[in-house]
Amino acid sequence: MANPIRGQVHIVGSGAIGSLIAAGAQRNQISYSLTPRRPEQLTQRLTSYSGQSRWLSGNLTSKQKLGPDDLLIFPLKAYQLEEAVKQWMERLDESTPILLLQNGMGGLETIRKLLPEHAVYIATTSHGVLKTQPHEVKHTGFGRTIFGEAPDNSAVDDEQLERVFETVSRCLQPVTWHKNIIEALWLKLAVNAVINPLTALHDIQNGGLKDERFAGHIDDISQEMVAVMQSEGYRYSVQDLVGQVRQVINATSQNYSSMHQDVKHKRPTEIDAINGYIVQTAQKKGIDVPINAFLYKKIKSLEAAYS
Ligand code: KPL
Fold it and tell me: How far does the centroid of ligand 1 lie from the alpha carbon of residue 18, in Å?
């Protein structure tokens, strides 16, 4: 069996997914730190999918430098990433690996602007996790995680890759390795482009999308996604994408999507990195995506009303 990283896992932000990773690290005796963006947001307790409560002991990291055996994880909202990378880059060794975990697209480009040479690994997860209180998180939907290497990593370090993969496998299981992680991100984008805006606009749990009245929307958004993905070289059928979306709806039916929660708590959403990214890519390719454009505008006007 492969070994995890030898050093410490540093998790930036203590949002829902970051807290789930911390609980996984703790369960597997992997040393970790969880650094909330604001100290009052530090997650202290996680209720697992099976209902067990776990107190998290890793906490605010000191300002020590990270080494090549550590792993820095950014499980952040797309719009928080740039500032976080700027804050942490001074503390990185040139061979400290980075793991990006994010909804939507554009995260790798953000990291590359600041850290062009670092080894970056990318994961995408469909676990449903909810911050129920400032210090409490609940694992509400058992999903899965897909992991891969950024396609533009300059040097291949097989031992590092194995250790990072093993670490993520223990913290965010079950994890599958994907040789083209960007393709996996596109598939996740198709899922988020449907579930996130619809659940936010209709104020429902993910499972609410099983209702017959949403079937047409799910098909139409998937149809637009197929056109955009084909223009990027990914061949999927509408049935493939609808199947993928429905599988996540079923697995996370009790969960409120992250965009639902953002709108409910009047926070900025990730719409730019999700439907906004689709609209932008479609525009560049001359593809019409009216439903995505509509959802994008709707969420933007909701955000404008409370910001
Ligand atoms: O990624 C998610 C999100 O809420 O952002 C899904 C998979 C839709 C789970 O809720």
Answer: 14
